[in-house]
Amino acid sequence: MVRPQALDSLADRWAADRFDLPAFDYPGTPDVRDESWWFDYVTLSVSVLACLWAPADHDTWFTELDGEWLDDAPGIFAVFTRLLGDPPGLDVASFADLSDEAGAQLFAGRGTLQLIPERVDLLRQVGAALTERWGGTALNLVTEAGRDGKRIANLLTETMPGYLDRPITPAGELRFDKLSHLAAAIMAAGVGWADAGFSGFDDFPVYPDYMLPRVFRHFGVIEYDTELALAIDQRDIVPAGAEAEHAIRWATVYCGAQLRDALADRGNPVVAPALDYRLWSEAVLGPDAANFGEHHRTITLRY
After folding, report:
1. What is the model's pLDDT at position 282?
2. What count of Cα atoms within 13 Å lies in the side-chain half-sphere of residue 99?
């Protein structure tokens, strides 16, 4: 259930706040980003930037980069930063022929990362698509899109394996495309947003993942029924494709759009990637993040 009064209260709470665009300068990412290889880096890494929580009774996954052990998204980015070489660049075609052994070694570390065989197979498919459809570089995709964020996201969805995220439900097709929108935003941020000629990000949706619903639930904007709330709090698996999973993600996108409108009504127009970053930051880095409760757990490479 979505509670409009709670959403209005959250908009009042944040009405005077500043919302910055994310730089996506996570630990594990390269300090220098040149578009000749940056878009390849993003396309490959974001295609497997999902399901980073550890299963019950398993330790969190970490991987090492330059003596630092990184988990979650920084850990995934570190996997690809290690491959950049000098001068920086990625051999995109080599991913198409990635062996199971070499692929598993990419994700070597400590703790448990779920779905490693599936990630390796996905990287093979992405490498093949970049080579065969995009002439060996995602720069061609970005160029064909005219550096428009919406068009970049659509081309990723339509041509890159792993980016299609449009479940068919009794309510119709839900065009989440979480990773596509995230990748398009990271591409632009890495080389300077508008300074690099990018546009078309203002009406992006927020990204329906694990963390954003925690914020909306914490502030009472989303309320789960008793059975679903108990399952999430007990860290039970919410099956991929289940009605509950679709409902959580749909409510997240809906509440993000409503919150953006409510902030605009209060004189604080916020572009969608900045709102998403604020919500994510509250859930992961904010002073009250530890009190936000559990996130839902779904085994999927969609988010």
Report:
1. 95
2. 3
Per-residue H/E/C for the chain: CECHHHHHHHHHHHCCCCCCCCCCCCCCCCCCCCHHHHHHHHHHHHHCCCCCCCCCCCCECEEEECCEEEEHHHHHHHHHHCCCCCCCCCCHHHHHCCCHHHHHHHCCCECECCCHHHHHHHHHHHHHHHHHCCCCCCHHHHHHCCCEHHHHHHHHHHHCCCCCCCCEECCEECCCCHHHHHHHHHHHHHCCHHHHCCECCCCCCCCCCCCHHHHHHHCCCECCCHHHHHHHHCCCECCCCCHHHHHHHHHHHHHHHHHHHHHHHCCCCCCHHHHHHHHHHHHHCCCCHHHCCCCCECCCCCC
- Per-residue pLDDT tens for 138-173? 999 999 999 999 999 999 999 999 999 999 999 899
Q: pLDDT of 2-42, one tens digit each?
A: 999 999 999 999 999 999 999 999 999 999 999 999 999 99
In whole angstroms, what is the distance from residue 42 CA to residue 182 CA? 10
Provide the 10 A C-beta neighbour count for residue 105. Answer: 11
For the record, the structure tokens of 158 come out as 């339509």
Structure tokens at 298: 């779904």
The tens digit of pLDDT for each residue in 235-285 reads 999 999 999 999 999 999 999 999 999 999 999 999 999 999 999 999 998
CB–CB of 198/190 below 8 Å?
Answer: no
Q: Are 153 and 183 a contacting pair, CB within 8 Å?
A: yes
Tell me how far apart the alpha carbons of residues 165 and 303 are, in angstroms, rounded to a whole number.
9
CB count in 10 Å sphere of residue 1: 9
Handedness of CA 129, 131, 134, 139 (dihedral sign): positive
- pTM exceeding 0.70: yes
